[in-house]
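Example S7 (structure tokens).
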């Protein structure tokens, strides 16, 4: 699979400037960062959460972990991780585990971690496990203009900044 059709359409509709970075197949965002030789703090990962009211996406640096209590406080909802089966159903044009951050295009409220929003450039999954989209920070923020910025994540232990 290559770039998701939904992502292609969103990039085109926003007039986004970007480049594709190809890398060896990877199973996780941290593996993708290592395979593409990019800083993990600049690689966006998308975490899908749910409750009885529906789905919410959290977009954060790959070196960070979602703090559910922070999102519960922010949203007033008791969100939990969505299942792999739900991800496949919602993101039909993406490989499992390779979700682009443009979740509003899939009908979901999206929260963008402020630690990612401040990066000079950002990489993110294109919808498969072998391509990343790379764009300047201002282009990424324009692409994510429908996401609400919030602080809801903490750096994972042992995840220092590397170039």
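Recovered sequence:
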């Amino acid at each position: 699979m290559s770039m998701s059709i939904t992502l292609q359409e969103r990039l085109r509709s926003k007039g986004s400037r970007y480049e594709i970075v190809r890398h060896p197949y990877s199973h996780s965002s941290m593996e993708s960062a290592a395979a593409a030789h990019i800083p993990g703090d600049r690689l966006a990962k998308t975490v899908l959460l749910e409750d009885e009211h529906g789905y919410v996406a959290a977009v954060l640096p790959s070196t960070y972990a979602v703090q559910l209590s922070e999102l519960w406080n922010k949203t007033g909802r008791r969100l939990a991780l969505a299942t792999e089966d739900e991800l496949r159903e919602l993101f039909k044009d993406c490989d499992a585990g390779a979700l682009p951050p443009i979740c509003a295009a899939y009908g979901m409220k999206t929260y963008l971690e402020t630690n990612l929003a401040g990066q000079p450039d950002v990489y993110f999954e294109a919808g498969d496990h072998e391509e990343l989209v790379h764009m300047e920070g201002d282009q990424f923020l324009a692409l994510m203009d429908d996401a609400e910025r919030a602080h809801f994540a903490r750096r994972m232990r042992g995840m220092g900044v590397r170039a």
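Notes on this example. The helical segments are 5-14, 29-36, 68-75, 84-90, 114-117, 137-143.
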